[in-house]
Amino acid sequence: xxFLLGGDKKKKPAPDSGVENVDRIKEIFQSGRFPVVTTQxxxxxxxxGKVLGLVACRGYDSEQTFFGMAARAVNKGAHxxxxxxxxxxxxxxxxxxxxxxxxxxxxxxxxxxRKALPDAELRC
Length: 124
What we know:
By secondary structure, this protein is of the alpha+beta class.
């Protein structure tokens, strides 16, 4: 009967495939190569070309939660996160539970800049 109910093997938690090396993601973010903004656009010359979807992470450490969300976006191939938001739940035992989420996006492929013609070719 014990075998039919699952035996004595404990289930292992599924590996969190959405989170990669947080230190690498932290370096990419802090160097300015991966923007995370609260607005619905990037606000500079870069335009959103493709929306990859919602990315989110939850946990008890705010930094790990934020960079976990960013790691999930990078794993999807994102260039940035727009519409970033975070929530904090306060538990009666005094602990905090953080939720970070946003929309992972890729930049629009901008055409390469045109080469300037030499002065001789500009004259008619």
